[in-house]
Structure to design on (1234 residues):
């Protein structure tokens, strides 16, 4: 049972990453811009976040928690900054959203290497053991016998998704900005015809997606792995996309979807010795998250309804 | 200009005066020195054929484009209108031909979008306000309902409410009755009369002359961007208006060739799928069967099912004795069906491809055009040149992309491609949508030529004029079944009732 | 009875108009030039921040491909896998599909090719073995691409996410293969060998081409390069002149119209995935059959195989604007830039990663300028066509004038 608990705690970690990245994708897509560059944005978040934690925590001596928090914030800011390229390409230049997303992913890998040489003097990783937040154990729940390990030794940041889920829902559905953002994604002509500018809303949606993805990446490198390493995002940006589709672009349902995929990540890591799983060759167990994602996509794609105008360029008032 | 010596009501000073408005787009002068006056408590009709410049003029007034020259005065003061928001602030509202509503939002959300009254939304308060407004003007609408679930007439009311909510004094309606049934149209006119009595100034853009004569107080006619006349219903007639619109006497009905009607070419039995629910009909050789109905009652599904673009749930499609249900689109086309789709961009042409590439679409499998998988360019281009000449498609060369053609020429291209194979049945859906009179007459004559050649035509159209002009038999489509069959001599009100499903059970052919 | 109309051709415009294809070529060329200027410009800013002279840096990069006497051969041999990879991506892209899974497809292909090299030596003597290995590579790529293809066609699952997942799965699959069925069995006794397959027989390798032009054996310029160029020519022909290419382009540009015209969308998409997978299958052949081969061995598949060729292929495809001819040149250009990576830290203060940044900026500028140029071209064409359309109504027959009212 404690093995299962351990798996759940890993799942919490991946859940946080997938949820935050997915939330970013949600804001972008609800505004009408498809963003498959989430992986690339996360990568930028990982390298800059790691640098932030190291620089402020160790180099400047701010220690913990200031250092890691600066890392997270730096990752958030740089993610948003990098996303502005996607916004410029798709909203201003009306480039195909998927093409732009692919370019973002390509460039991010090279840019991360470059930044790594600037930050850490090496191209593919930083030094290990960087400052991170003190781990916590959730009271009460962590005392459950055997299963309690699920709630022990977690980074405090895993609470963040739970804190923002409802505020995000509220902002989207109960504020003027949220109404306008959603209308830009459903019917930009309607939005424009009432005098509300569509482009700024879409820019905002994309920048927010960069911020969330960058934050998520920073969380990965600062809190989970405690250093930066090339390739550490493991396709989580794309898994987040699948979670987003599964959740039908709803911030509350996204939590469930993110946990499902988070648990899929945990299986090869924590449940390797379980009875059935033990008899499957190790490499096949490693495929679990990817297979789960494909199965979900193949099964659910017909039953979801993306924002109506997502993916189509809006040409502006002269039509 | 031109207001001297005109009788008519509305001696109140004009709300809005447009003077000398000129607007050019690449290749065309949309408005050429146009002047217009709008007065309170008046319905002013703006008529002209497609491309005459009426929508452009109103969009300039609504701030969607700047004019190249000319001026606009509101209450005597010259203004520059930079955007729709600006226009609304000055009391000008517009209801577009294609509604701009956000489907998943409620009526209230759609109405308040852009003028929410604060950063935090208050759904109940908004719905109360919208309901109160609707009641004031006698509109039947539930502010809490989702727009997706509304009928077309109700959607239009939401559009009008959007303008009224912002306190407009001038309401521009662009082709408002294009999508309404006869009874919804009279509901709309009721509402317009109420608004007029309230002192609003209404601009009614339309090409439907009967309706214009019924509702308008004054009529301005545009042709090719120029004002060619201003009059009132009392001083004019439908024929005179039509002549002003087109510049020459216009025929409202082409000669229908007298042809002997033969055996059934197409028989649909119990067709079910999408919105269709057990639809049955028959088209015979030399016959044009017209399906009249308000959009959204299954027209698109009917076309898609017959062409194999969508799977059948149940029913039979028999072409000349051959059962075509669950065959592929290619097989159906090869069996002798030609298709002119209602959306020429989404289902008709591949816009980025050239004319000759579009003309071979559907036949790229057939022997003279392909050999061992390789396309025979010379044969294809020869065919293209012939077709472009025969169907009078205006383009510099066959290497131009289809997207560069005007709507009328695009439709001619599609007709050329479909008729070239001499299909036994031509399925034409909304074939003259968005076309000017010249193109409409061309398309109609091609359809009648099919009839003359003894072929069958299934015509689906939301334009009753078109149905009447071409059909030998009229069938009404409502909620996925045929609700009535009428001869072309039947009055429009009767057909209108069939379109609304308001009929006792009748025998359908 | 119809309205007859006459249209003076090119209504007295008097302007000599160029044929469409030339317009398009000029427009593309200018866009490419503009993109280059922008990229080099932005790169210069970074160079200046490092305190270097942009001319020096760019000069170094360019010279890297030409100073070494074998330089051009290195460039061409590095470009070879990129050509196959970019072609694979572009084939799908023509039909509106994004095959990001070239990465995984070539990994699997290397494994299937390795299997063939190790087990078909008995059946396929002499040069036949090499062809057999190549064929199995192609088949492996096709089979692996067929999976996301089938998922797309049957369930509509978006190929961007499924192909990327397949990439992840492929890494594990190949790892498993290297640890089990393909694991080496005859390593030299007593030595510690990195995980790999057995060495292939000598007749599996692809023969060297460089020596015919006076280049040494080190750059590994093989007959795979002309094969790649041939593949590009074939792709060009298929896309432009064959029915499959036509149908793919129609589906990619307007799936609805293609379908209404009778084209089977699912079958076209599946074919595109298969062709794409086939091309992807050849991406890894340079590594395992050439780079890892020696005078009397045919090569092998190691654990530390070169990955990322799939993603680089996407970059090259965009750079070459998804045009087979453009792709060949783009691949060569890209390879020569990459060659500059190793020179840069030796001759200047710039880190080698600067080349990667430059490549990234270049892709972005090309994508943006090209799209804008194409749009501008379309607008001009539309304007011209509309301007020439002068409908002059000549006459109607008297019978129609009598016409009636409703």
């Amino acid at each position: 049972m404690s093995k299962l608990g351990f798996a759940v705690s890993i799942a919490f970690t991946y859940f946080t990453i997938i949820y935050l990245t997915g939330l970013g994708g949600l804001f972008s897509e609800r505004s009408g811009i498809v963003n498959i560059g989430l992986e690339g944005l996360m990568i930028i978040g990982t390298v800059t976040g790691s640098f932030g934690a190291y620089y402020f925590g160790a180099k400047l001596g701010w220690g913990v928690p200031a250092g890691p928090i600066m890392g997270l914030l730096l990752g958030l800011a740089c993610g948003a900054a990098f996303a502005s390229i996607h916004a410029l390409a798709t909203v201003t230049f009306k480039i195909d959203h998927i093409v732009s997303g692919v370019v973002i992913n390509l460039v991010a890998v090279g840019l991360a290497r470059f930044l790594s040489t600037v930050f850490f003097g090496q191209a593919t990783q930083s030094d290990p053991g960087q400052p991170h937040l003190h781990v916590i154990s959730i009271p009460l729940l962590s005392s459950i016998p055997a299963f309690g390990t699920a709630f022990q030794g977690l980074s405090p940041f895993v609470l963040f998704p739970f804190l923002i889920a409802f505020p995000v829902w509220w902002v989207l559905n109960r504020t003027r900005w949220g109404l306008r953002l959603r209308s830009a994604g459903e019917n930009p002509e309607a939005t424009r015809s009432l005098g509300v500018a569509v482009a700024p809303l879409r820019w905002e949606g994309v920048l927010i997606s960069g911020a969330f993805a960058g934050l998520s990446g920073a969380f990965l490198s600062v809190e989970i792995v405690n250093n930066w390493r090339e390739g550490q995002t493991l396709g989580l940006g794309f898994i987040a996309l699948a979670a987003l589709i599964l959740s039908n672009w709803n911030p509350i349902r996204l939590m469930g979807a993110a946990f499902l995929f988070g648990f899929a990540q945990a299986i090869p890591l924590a449940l390797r010795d379980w009875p059935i799983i033990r008899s499957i060759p190790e490499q096949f167990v490693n495929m679990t998250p990817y297979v789960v994602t494909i199965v979900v996509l193949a099964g659910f794609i017909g039953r979801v309804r993306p924002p109506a105008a997502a993916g189509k360029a809006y040409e502006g008032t002269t039509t | 200009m031109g207001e001297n010596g005109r009788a008519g009501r509305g001696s109140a000073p004009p709300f809005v005066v447009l003077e000398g408005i000129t607007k050019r787009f690449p290749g065309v002068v949309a408005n050429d020195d146009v002047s217009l006056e709008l007065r309170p408590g008046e319905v002013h009709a703006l008529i002209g054929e497609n491309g005459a410049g009426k929508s452009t003029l109103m969009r300039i007034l609504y701030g969607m484009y700047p004019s190249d020259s000319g001026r606009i005065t509101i209450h005597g003061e010259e203004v520059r209108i930079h955007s729709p928001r600006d226009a609304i602030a000055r009391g000008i509202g517009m209801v577009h031909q294609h509604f701009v509503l956000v489907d998943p939002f409620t009526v209230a959300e759609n109405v308040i979008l852009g003028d929410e009254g604060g950063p935090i939304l208050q759904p109940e308060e908004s719905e109360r306000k919208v309901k109160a407004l609707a009641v004031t003007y006698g509109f039947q609408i539930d502010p809490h309902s989702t727009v997706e679930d509304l009928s077309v007439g109700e959607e239009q009311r939401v559009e009008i409410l959007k303008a009224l909510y912002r306190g407009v004094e001038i309401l521009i309606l662009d082709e408002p009755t294009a999508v309404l049934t006869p009874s919804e149209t009279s509901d709309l006119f009721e509402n317009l009369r109420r608004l007029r009595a309230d002192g609003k100034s209404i601009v009614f853009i339309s090409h439907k002359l009967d309706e214009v004569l019924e509702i308008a107080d004054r009529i301005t006619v545009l042709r090719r961007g120029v004002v060619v006349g201003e009059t009132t219903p009392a001083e004019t007639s439908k024929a005179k208006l039509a002549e002003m619109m087109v510049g020459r006497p216009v025929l409202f009905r082409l000669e229908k060739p007298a042809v002997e009607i033969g055996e059934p070419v197409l028989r649909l039995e119990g067709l079910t799928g999408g919105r269709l629910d057990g639809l049955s009909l028959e088209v015979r050789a030399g016959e044009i069967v017209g399906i009249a109905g308000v959009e959204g009652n299954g027209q698109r599904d009917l076309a898609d099912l017959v062409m194999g673009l969508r799977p059948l749930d149940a029913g039979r499609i028999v072409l000349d004795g051959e059962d075509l249900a669950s065959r592929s689109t290619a097989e159906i086309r090869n069996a002798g069906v030609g298709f002119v789709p209602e959306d020429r961009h989404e289902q008709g042409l591949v816009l980025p491809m050239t004319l000759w590439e579009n003309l071979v679409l559907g036949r790229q499998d057939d022997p003279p055009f392909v050999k061992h998988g390789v396309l025979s360019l010379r044969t294809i281009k020869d065919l293209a040149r012939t077709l472009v000449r025969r169907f009078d498609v205006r383009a510099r060369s066959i290497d131009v992309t289809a997207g560069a053609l005007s709507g009328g020429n695009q439709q001619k291209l599609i007709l050329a491609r479909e008729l070239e194979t001499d299909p036994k049945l031509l399925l034409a859906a909304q074939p003259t949508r968005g076309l000017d009179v010249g193109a409409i007459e061309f398309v109609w004559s091609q359809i009648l030529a099919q009839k003359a050649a003894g072929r069958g035509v299934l015509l689906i159209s939301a334009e009753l004029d078109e149905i009447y002009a071409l059909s030998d038999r009229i069938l009404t489509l409502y909620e996925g079944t045929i609700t009535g069959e009428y001869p072309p001599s039947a009055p429009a009100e009767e057909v209108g009732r069939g379109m609304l499903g308001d009929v006792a059970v009748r025998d359908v052919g | 009875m119809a309205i007859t109309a006459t249209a003076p051709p090119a209504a007295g415009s008097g302007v000599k108009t160029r044929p469409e294809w030339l317009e398009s070529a000029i427009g593309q060329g200018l866009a490419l030039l503009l993109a280059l200027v922008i990229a080099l410009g932005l790169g210069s800013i970074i160079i200046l921040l490092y305190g270097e002279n942009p001319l020096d840096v760019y000069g170094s990069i360019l010279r890297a491909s030409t100073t070494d006497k074998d330089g051009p051969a290195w460039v061409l041999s590095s470009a070879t896998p990129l050509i196959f990879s970019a072609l694979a991506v572009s084939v799908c892209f023509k039909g509106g599909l994004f095959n990001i899974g070239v990465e995984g497809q070539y990994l699997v292909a290397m494994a299937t090719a390795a299997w063939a090299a190790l087990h078909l030596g008995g059946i396929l003597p002499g040069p036949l073995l090499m062809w057999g290995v190549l064929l199995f590579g192609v088949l492996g790529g096709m089979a692996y691409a067929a999976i996301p293809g089938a998922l797309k066609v049957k369930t509509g699952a978006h190929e961007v996410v499924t192909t990327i997942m397949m990439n992840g799965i492929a890494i594990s699959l190949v790892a498993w293969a290297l640890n089990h069925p393909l694991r080496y069995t005859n390593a030299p006794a007593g030595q510690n060998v990195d995980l790999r397959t057995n060495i292939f027989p000598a007749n599996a390798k692809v023969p060297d081409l460089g020596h015919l032009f006076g280049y040494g054996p080190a750059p590994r310029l093989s007959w795979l390069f002309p094969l790649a160029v041939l593949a590009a020519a074939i792709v060009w022909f298929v896309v432009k002149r064959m029915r499959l290419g036509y149908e793919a382009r129609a589906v990619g540009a307007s799936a609805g119209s293609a379908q209404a015209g009778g084209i089977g969308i699912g079958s076209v998409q599946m074919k595109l995935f298969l062709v794409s997978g086939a091309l992807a299958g050849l991406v890894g052949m340079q590594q395992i059959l050439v780079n890892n081969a020696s005078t009397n061995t045919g090569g092998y598949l190691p654990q530390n195989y070169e990955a990322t060729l799939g993603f680089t292929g996407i970059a090259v495809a965009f750079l070459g604007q998804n045009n087979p001819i453009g792709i060949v040149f783009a691949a060569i250009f890209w390879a020569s830039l990459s060659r500059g990576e190793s020179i840069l830290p030796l001759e200047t203060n710039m880190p080698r990663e600067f080349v990667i940044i430059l490549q990234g900026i270049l892709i972005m500028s090309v994508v943006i300028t090209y799209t804008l140029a194409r749009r501008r071209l379309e607008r001009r064409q539309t304007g011209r066509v509309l301007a020439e359309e002068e409908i002059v109504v000549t006459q109607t027959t008297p019978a129609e004038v009598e016409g009636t009212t409703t």
